[in-house]
């Protein structure tokens, strides 16, 4: 993937397979775009984010039996599903039952308007593909997502030895926001947070055709694949602008999690400590 990649053209399958075979990507069969938020350097010398603890991904509705075994091998005991009920119904992607794994419904949008008119407006923003449009959409996620994100942050606070995975539908937008919050609290540099976000461009590639088929049922995208592809972009500069949004609108990530997630300074200190390990540590 080059700096000039528009996000609209298919990526070379050999390149994609190679990247997906290496960290931070991990394999859970039937689940797309899964990666480990561990092993990133932090602002503290010789301290990295804890490997094998926090995972991000796309929807787990189509996980295969092999994927269940891979998930268990990773030690994942809790899955946070950030999707809303209407989208699960719309795409026929219910929450699966996985023995030994607790899947918690943690919707970002609990009372969002899913009327055709409301969704058309949202899709138009996504389809524009501009950084400004994504920033507006991500501000909506932040305004609504405090309870959901707080649930995940409290897991980190209270269960530092219980690996978990969080996901939305694509593992890009809602997932990308809480991933950025976790990495920021851990002390990861903005540049690396933006790079992590941009990896979704590669992580989603195997599901490219499936997603386009799904979006083709929406009136806005039915006759225009390019608009659908713009919606799927995950550009570095989008997350860079979003981190600026955290600072300009919410007073920073720490202020956001205090106001919107109901956390206090002691919680944040514990969460930060639970997200990192000495660089020599091997989980």
TrEMBL record:
Record InterPro entries: Prot-tyrosine_phosphatase-like (IPR029021), Tyr/Ser_Pase_IphP-type (IPR026893), Tyr_Pase_AS (IPR016130), Tyr_Pase_dom (IPR000387)
Domain of life: Eukaryota
Pfam families, per the entry: Y_phosphatase3
Span of domain Tyrosine specific protein phosphatases: 147-189
SUPFAM superfamilies according to UniProt: (Phosphotyrosine protein) phosphatases II (SSF52799)
Gene Ontology MF annotations: phosphoprotein phosphatase activity
Entry protein name: Tyrosine specific protein phosphatases domain-containing protein
Organism field: Paxillus involutus ATCC 200175
Lineage: Eukaryota, Fungi, Dikarya, Basidiomycota, Agaricomycotina
């Amino acid at each position: 993937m080059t700096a000039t990649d528009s996000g609209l053209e298919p990526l070379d399958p050999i390149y994609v397979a190679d990247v997906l075979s290496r960290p931070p990507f991990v394999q859970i069969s039937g689940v797309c775009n899964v990666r480990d938020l561990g092993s990133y350097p932090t602002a503290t010398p010789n301290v990295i984010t804890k490997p094998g603890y926090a995972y991000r991904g796309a929807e787990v509705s189509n996980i295969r039996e092999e994927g269940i075994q891979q998930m268990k091998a990773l030690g994942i005991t809790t899955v946070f599903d950030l999707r809303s009920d209407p989208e699960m119904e719309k795409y026929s992607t219910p929450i699966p039952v996985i023995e030994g794994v607790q899947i918690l419904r943690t919707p970002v949008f609990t009372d969002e308007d899913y009327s055709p008119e409301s969704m058309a407006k949202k899709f138009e923003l996504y389809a524009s593909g501009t950084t400004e449009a994504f920033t507006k959409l991500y501000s909506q996620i932040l305004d609504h997502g405090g309870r959901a994100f707080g649930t995940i942050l409290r897991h980190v606070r209270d269960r530092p030895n219980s690996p978990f995975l969080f996901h939305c539908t694509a593992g890009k937008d809602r997932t990308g926001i809480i991933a950025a919050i976790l990495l920021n609290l851990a002390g990861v540099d903005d540049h690396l947070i933006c790079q992590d976000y941009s990896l979704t461009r590669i992580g989603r590639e195997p599901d490219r055709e499936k997603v386009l088929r799904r979006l083709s049922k929406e009136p806005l995208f039915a006759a225009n694949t390019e608009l659908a592809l713009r919606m799927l972009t995950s550009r570095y500069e989008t997350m860079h602008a979003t981190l600026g949004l955290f600072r300009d609108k919410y007073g920073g990530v720490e202020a956001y999690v205090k106001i919107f997630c109901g956390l206090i300074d002691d919680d944040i200190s514990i969460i930060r400590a639970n997200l990192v390990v000495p660089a020599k540590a091997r989980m």
